[in-house]
Amino acid sequence: MRFRFGVIVGVLVALVAVIGGQIVPVPGVSAQGGGGDDTCSTIVAAAVAAAADTCGDLARGEACLGSAADERVSIDSLDALTTTSDPEWGVALMALSAGLPENSEAAVTAILFGETKVARPDLTTPDRPTLKVWNGGGSDVNLRNGAGITYELVGTLAPGQETVADGRNQQADWLRIQVDGGVAWAFAPLINWDGDTSVLEVLLPDDVTSAVPASGEPFETFTLTTGTADMCGAASSGLILYYTGEQPASVQVNQVGIEFSDAVLLLRAVPGESLDVLAVTGSATVTARGVSEEIAVGGVVQVSLGGDDGLTPTATPVGLISYAFSDIAYAPLALLPGDLACLVGLPAGNGVALRVGPGADRGEIASMRPDIGYVVSGWANDPDGTPWWELDTGAQKSWVAQSAVRAIGACEAVAEVEAPPVVVAPPGGAPPAGGGAASGPDLAPTSNSVWQMKPGSDNLTGECSGAPAINFCDHLAAIGPIAGGISWRGMEASPYSLTRTQSNVYYYSGPNVLGTGTITMTLTFSSETTLNMTMVLVLNSEPNCQHTYYYTGSRNW
Questions:
Q1: Which residue among 5, 43, 74, 412 is least packed, with the fewest CB closer than 10 Å?
Q2: What is the 3-state secondary structure (H, E, C) of 322-384?
Q3: 225 and 188 belong to one structural domain
Q4: For residue range 308-340, what is the model confidence (pLDDT) as tens digits?
Q5: Residue 210: pLDDT band with limits 50, 70, 90
Q6: Strand, helix or coil at 467?
Q7: Are residues 323 and 353 in the same domain?
Q8: Is 255 helix (H, G, I), strand (E, B) or coil?
Q9: Would 73 be classed as within a structural domain?
Q10: What pLDDT is attached to residue 339?
Q11: How many domains does the chain have?
């Protein structure tokens, strides 16, 4: 299968041309009914496979149109590049100079997909009269997004600073001036000018369309528009930018500056709404109307768009904490030249359980969050031969069925790992008093309870360098039910969450509450009123020394 795209060019290029403004397309990948996740996944996989076959090893300054004919053109010959969707889904690639040194072969990989268009901006400067203006006072003059104090403050004009005005409002009490590569509005009584303001063109009070023409290398500056909906939803259109290198790359998209290095960014721009920059990996700096906003992996920066063209920044950048995994679920990240980490997540908001090991009968840790892309660290089959992903959540390793999530990135390179064993008894040393786990129904308390705990003495093993034993006194512990396990709080300031690994057995492994080391706890209920627990403490100051305690406990109330 092949996929549809179009380009606008000034001359005949390969099999694609514009004759009298007519876009000549090539065949595409389309939906065969439906529009669900299975359909979208099939379409994306086919388009990505076709592009991977024909668009490898792009040289700087080249664009690949993605057809089976291996259509490559120089981006110098392109005025615009468009991929289409609804009902077809297209992909195209470009290798951009992006402000990198001219004598370098380094380039930014740009991938258009879905319903997306990039175009060189109009280089024609509007033919309208201007006046020289300056700040003749002794303090800064506020600049706003429109002709009025209710509009957002976007900058200042410093004392003595000069520029030009290219428009006014109807009352001529506000002038629109060119500043910081864009435009803003200044209150006329606060600034000085040469000439008569009546010669200036009357503009709408919210007009911030730039009057500054673009310059630089081809597609170092460009406009971006993406669709609002198609067969896979709005999330399946966009522009991916990828670059890795010491010197930062930079592009200007819809008059918004983006500087980045060692990052994968996903951009979307809906006219009249916003330009969204999502950091899939790495970080970037997004600058609009003279204000910069930093963005880190998992975050998003949003810039409101408006003006006559619907693509002009009307506000300074706003940083948001996170985005939904569905926003990147269908992005063709597999086409990137580097090895992006394998990420999995939920393309929809339904809850999926994270478990302590592969298999539906393993203990549940928590539910997956729809706003997180989880990094895959391995895979293994469950006892039935069904593949599961091992996820690195930053704490305890978690597992999820591969069929329950969508995976993106270099997932074919993920190595098989050994599945964690099912914990059937407290590990290490002699069995604690009272025996092992009781058979039959789970005996864990179903409401908050208090237990008398006896830790016994410290059993030192390993290379302890003469470290003294750390003996704890008998103490009370609060135990209560939580999702997928129990909460246990002894002498600590905050509780531990122990995951149920099988009937009557609960487990935790990770940092201790004080942050001075790691702790492993395996708690087993032997009856409704008795329990045993093995706890292993390893301090950061002596990583080769283990302090092991064999607890017994009885329920007080």
A1: 412
A2: CCCHHHCCCCCHHHCCCCCCCEEECCCCCCCEEECCCCCCCCEEEECCCCCCEEEEEEEECCC
A3: no
A4: 788 888 888 999 877 888 888 888 888 887 667
A5: low
A6: coil
A7: no
A8: coil
A9: yes
A10: 66
A11: 4
Q: Assess contact for 353 and 401: CB atoms under 8 A.
A: no
| Cβ(237)–Cβ(115) below 8 Å | yes
Which stretch of DSSP H or E encloses residue 165? Answer: strand 162-168
* Residue 421 domain flag: no
Rounded to 5°, angle at Cα 122 from 120 and 123: 105
pLDDT, tens digit (0-9, with 9 covering 90-100), for 403-421: 988 888 878 889 999 988 7
Q: Please report which confidence band the pLDDT of residue 26 belongs to, taking 50, 70 and 90 as the band edges.
A: very low
Instruction: Please check whether residue 426 lies inside any domain of the structure.
Output: no
Q: Which residue has the tokens 């004392």?
A: 159
Other beta carbons within 10 angstroms of residue 301's beta carbon come to 26
Domain hosting residue 328, numbered range: 5-122+216-335
What rounded mean pLDDT belongs to the chain?
Answer: 80
Domain closes at, from 300, 335, 370: 335
Which residue, 335, 360, 389, sits at the end of a domain?
335
C-alpha dist (Å) from residue 77 to 17, 72, 91, 468:
11, 11, 19, 76
The CA-atom distances, in angstroms, between 479 and each of 283, 296, 476 are 42, 38, 10
Domain assignment present for 438? no
Q: DSSP state, 215?
A: -
The confidence band for 427, taking pLDDT boundaries of 50, 70 and 90, is very low
CA distance 397 to 319: 30
Whether residues 232 and 91 share a domain: the answer is yes
- Token code pair at residue 337: 């030249």
What does the block give as tokens for 411?
Answer: 């997932």
Identify the helix (H) or strand (E) that includes residue 319. strand 318-320
Residue 335 main-chain phi, psi, to 5 deg: -80, -10
Pick the closest to residue 303 from 331, 335, 277 (CA basis): 277
Higher pLDDT, 196 or 40: 196
- Average pLDDT of the segment spanning 35-59: 72
Task: Please state which of the ranges 41-55, 83-97, 312-326, 431-445 shows the lowest mean pLDDT.
Answer: 431-445
For the stretch 39-76, what's the b/e string if a residue is b when 16 or more beta carbons lie within 10 angstroms of its beta carbon? ebeebbebbbebbeebbeebebbbbbbbbeeebbbebe
Residue with tokens 């580097």: 338
Residue 472 neighbours by CB distance under 10 Å: 18
Q: Are residues 549 and 458 in the same domain?
A: yes
Does 102 share its domain with 248? Answer: yes
3-class DSSP state of 402: helix
Cis check for the bond before 87: say yes or no (omega within 30 of 0): yes
98-114 per-position pLDDT tens digit: 988 888 889 999 999 88
For residue 136, name the pLDDT band (cuts at 50, 70, 90): very high
In angstroms, rounded to a whole number, what is the distance separating the alpha carbons of residues 302 and 279?
12
Characterise 65 by phi-psi region: left (phi > 0), alpha (psi -120 to 50), beta (else): alpha
Residues 136 and 107 in one domain: no
Domain with residue 365: its CATH number is 2.30.30.40
The token pair at 128 is 């309208």
Instruction: Please tell me whether residues 277 and 314 are part of one structural domain.
Output: yes
